[in-house]
């Protein structure tokens, strides 16, 4: 792909001359006679740089610089002026200009600065793409999708503890995904190929004591630790002392404070020196429900080798209106029912007021319409029959941003 420059110059003859110079150099030029015209091309994922005159009517180069920095702080802006002075140059650099050149500028100097800026921009975009690919493909993002603070915090905590040689305690009500969280921690660990698992609900009295632990860094996932008796806790303590490379990932429905009050071994607790992570319920991830439901539905469709059905908005409204006290298994089963096309009774909201249900439905409609229109705010407002101000007021109310619904750039 050819390097790109957005050239902003109000002098038609000079703009054409600069464009021809850059074109000869193999640089693709997007021409604009001012900021208003340039706004169509300036975007956060623009792969090139901005070359702008300072002295222009209506909006000068500093207005351009301010708009670019609001759009993408890392997008380089090179400013040109025919009346350079030290205070202006200092202001330009202070406000974030990549470079400041005086007209007339030698072609060699201009091209040198632009190529340097383009290389800088290329490095930034490559780094962003890599970070985005990692974020969207790691086990934390795949297993716990969503934009709520609870989901973001959980993903952050799982990623943070994964590479550390610390024991972990995952707690939360049944069905929130503690087993999945334990798997996620192991999956994100680069030095632990072995993952052992024991469910104390089904385990025999000597299962921990007879466990064969390889002499390599490995994980032991111990589920339903609230059921561990004194003998099993003693066996676990001996196992940890005998295998320093063993990391234990405990999970239970209660916090460790609660378990200690109910007789959990203080010696074992002291040896473990646990990092605790609370796995949130679906109530705390309410705004993620449509994403989670759709993920379960698509997984079911793939598993059954059937087409993903067209899901009516009434189903999404139903999803948003229910509390899902059964958490992930309950939502997964509902998604399976919808994919199979079975008749289901609408859920009766358990704790949401009418206003809360209406808000949930309105937010879902806005989100789905933005998604259909690929994040185009004007088209979305038009299709919903809303005046622009009302539309943007609604977006602000529900913390929705059109750019979040735009298709991702191909990696």
UniProtKB/TrEMBL annotation:
Residue numbers bearing the 4-aspartylphosphate modification: 53
Annotated keywords: ATP-binding, Nucleotide-binding, Phosphoprotein, Transcription, Transcription regulation, Two-component regulatory system
Stretches assigned to coiled coil: none
Domain Sigma-54 factor interaction, residue spans: 144-340
Keyword Disulfide bond on entry: no
GO BP terms: phosphorelay signal transduction system; regulation of DNA-templated transcription
GO molecular function, one term: sequence-specific DNA binding
Cross-referenced SMART domains: REC (SM00448)
Domain Response regulatory: 4-118
rRNA-binding among keywords: no
Protein name in UniProt: Sigma-54-dependent Fis family transcriptional regulator
Organism, scientific name: Paramylibacter kogurei
């Amino acid at each position: 792909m050819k390097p790109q420059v957005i050239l902003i110059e109000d002098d038609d003859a000079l703009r054409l001359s600069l464009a021809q110079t850059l074109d000869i150099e193999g640089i693709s030029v997007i021409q604009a006679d001012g900021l208003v015209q340039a706004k169509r091309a300036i975007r956060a994922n623009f792969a090139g740089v901005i070359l702008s005159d300072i002295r222009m009517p209506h909006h000068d180069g500093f207005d351009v610089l301010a708009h670019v920095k609001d759009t993408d702080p890392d997008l380089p802006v090179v400013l040109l002026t025919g009346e350079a002075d030290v205070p202006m140059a200092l202001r330009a650099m202070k406000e974030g200009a990549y470079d400041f050149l005086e007209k007339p500028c030698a072609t060699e100097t201009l091209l040198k600065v632009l190529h340097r800026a383009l290389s800088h921009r290329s490095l930034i975009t490559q780094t962003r793409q890599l970070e985005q690919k990692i974020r969207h493909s790691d086990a934390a993002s795949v297993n716990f999708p969503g934009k709520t603070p609870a989901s973001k915090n959980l993903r952050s905590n799982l990623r943070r503890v994964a590479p550390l040689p610390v024991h972990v305690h995952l707690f939360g009500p049944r069905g929130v995904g503690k087993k999945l969280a334990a798997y996620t921690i192991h999956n994100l660990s680069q030095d632990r190929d072995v993952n052992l698992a024991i469910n104390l609900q089904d385990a025999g009295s000597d299962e921990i004591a007879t466990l064969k632990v390889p002499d390599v860094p490995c994980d032991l996932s111990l589920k339903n630790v609230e059921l561990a008796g004194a003998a099993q806790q003693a066996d676990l303590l001996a196992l940890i002392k005998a295998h320093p490379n063993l990391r234990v990932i405990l999970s239970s429905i209660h916090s460790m404070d609660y378990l200690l009050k109910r007789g959990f071994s203080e010696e074992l607790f002291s040896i473990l020196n646990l990092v605790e992570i609370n796995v949130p319920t679906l109530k705390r991830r309410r705004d993620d429900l449509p994403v989670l439901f759709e993920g379960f539905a698509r997984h079911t469709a793939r598993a059954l080798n059937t087409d993903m059905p067209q899901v009516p908005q009434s189903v999404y409204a139903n999803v948003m209106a229910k509390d899902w006290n059964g958490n992930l298994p309950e939502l997964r089963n509902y998604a399976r029912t919808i994919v199979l096309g079975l008749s289901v009774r609408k859920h009766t909201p358990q704790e949401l007021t009418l206003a809360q249900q209406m808000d949930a439905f309105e937010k879902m409609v806005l989100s789905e319409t933005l998604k259909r229109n690929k994040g185009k705010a004007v088209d979305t407002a038009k299709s919903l029959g809303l005046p622009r101000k009302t539309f943007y007021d609604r977006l602000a109310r529900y913390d929705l941003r059109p750019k979040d619904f735009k298709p991702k750039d191909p990696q």
